[in-house]
Amino acid sequence: MNNQQKVKKINFFILISCLFLTSVLSSKTFKKVNSQDISILGSELLSIEDIVANSSLEFPTPLIFVKTKYTEKELKKNLSLKNVSISRQIFPFGLKIFIKTRTPIAYGEKFIKGEKINGYIDQEGFFIYEEFSDKENIKNISSRVLGWKEEHKETLSKILHSQKKDDIEFITINYLPNGFLILEEKSLKTIFLGIDPEIIDTQLQIICNIKNQLIEKNILERIDNIDLT
Q: What is the pTM of this model?
């Protein structure tokens, strides 16, 4: 057998191998995936039942037809997750779901159709449902957020972050039904902020300045409330 014949034989073998591999991969991608083919990484809090119940996933369905990006958005929103990544896998066959949960730093309370829902709030102002929260991170929580709404997240995040850089400790962050914001600080007690989220940065700076001045003058115990509306 000359070199030319050897090359042809090798090329033929490569072609057959590629066709075989393509056929196998194609059949695998169209193979129907079931709930037992799901693996969850990054959290032990969520079950496969939670994933199915909080997404539009239906089983059995061909692996190639699973809408990974759409399902990621659903799970992230419905389960209050920080991040979700879903990948289709052929070997081993199934769906692999990587999950990053949120860390609760305050108790939370919101209302849906008049019903009070208990949960927790993370540093970015997101609401975490009680059943999906990491109980290991709530032992030292002492603050609470009342009347949480989606529209309050940005302002709430600024308030929660302000406690890190300033010597401020908010015990209660209370949103009334009309959006009026009332804070309860450990030393300054009740602080009225009103309904304008555009001035929250200025208000938080004023709170810090007031507390520092009152500490210097040793008159904190005389404060009943502060009105910054």
A: 0.79
